[in-house]
């Protein structure tokens, strides 16, 4: 449990007013990068502590959700606790929050008030629809960001109307908004720290536009041609063969054989070299026009083999492919383990637990070293953090 001076954000001080996912995800990234993050929780703790599985009342997810953060508890309905928050923000570089738009103003802690206390404070705000606009006061969760941002329309299978388009399985709009907020907050801090005269900035991030930003060329295509992209299923309309194919053991194999050379190797590997010589399949455009025949031939082959065996054969032929990994596959895969993507971490509240590594690497810092401590109990650092704030202490804090 030590400070990480070799990480790029060492010395940056962040206060998190986050609950559930978006803001805590943003600050987890910043904390993994070395920032001091003080997570302010209500007296009962972040509601996410009640989600999912637990060990003796300690939420398993929070081990990752709250890692590398200092936890304090405040009741923002109380004037004295709001004063304590302001004291924390006086020593901070940034605040990250994800209340409903306008909540800070309603409790007397809007940006104008906070900038009076700390004129150089960067304020990162995450909400469903943004701090302005006709929808700003509507409630929203991650599923709404997926739905309105255009993603959920695309997750259906083509022509399927019996079942609703599924969510992707994780809170993708919260995570995206958190990533964008982290990037924007660091950018604003860079500007403020680089200019002694600079004033703090307000960063406005929302769930809907975070998802909408991923829609590639769909908006200009609609504007120019009136095209509305429809669900593609597991295939890619502009490249072939690229799809996910059934295997003999009930698992699925994703295969991307869409360049001319890879296509030839793929056809040889599945025993159909004559298809590689067929003029209809000589280039990607022709393969896209005849993709149904190609996919049928590939699926005929994959159905005869377990997914792992088919994967081994295609990898030997240098054809990009992968089984659809579930978490058991991820946790035991030798590459995941060798790269440190999956780490065994000792959590004082849970015992030994598996953690995902931070999704970035820096020379001189091992992935394991970026997990300085696991998610603490709510309010675990009250005494240390509030004492430092009362003294006006600016040095980074570590447990």
TrEMBL record:
<dbReference type="Pfam" id="PF02515">
    <property type="entry name" value="CoA_transf_3"/>
</dbReference>
<protein>
    <submittedName>
        <fullName>CoA transferase</fullName>
    </submittedName>
</protein>
<dbReference type="GO" id="GO:0016740">
    <property type="term" value="F:transferase activity"/>
</dbReference>
<keyword id="KW-0808">Transferase</keyword>
<dbReference type="InterPro" id="IPR003673">
    <property type="entry name" value="CoA-Trfase_fam_III"/>
</dbReference>
<dbReference type="InterPro" id="IPR050509">
    <property type="entry name" value="CoA-transferase_III"/>
</dbReference>
<dbReference type="InterPro" id="IPR044855">
    <property type="entry name" value="CoA-Trfase_III_dom3_sf"/>
</dbReference>
<dbReference type="InterPro" id="IPR023606">
    <property type="entry name" value="CoA-Trfase_III_dom_1_sf"/>
</dbReference>
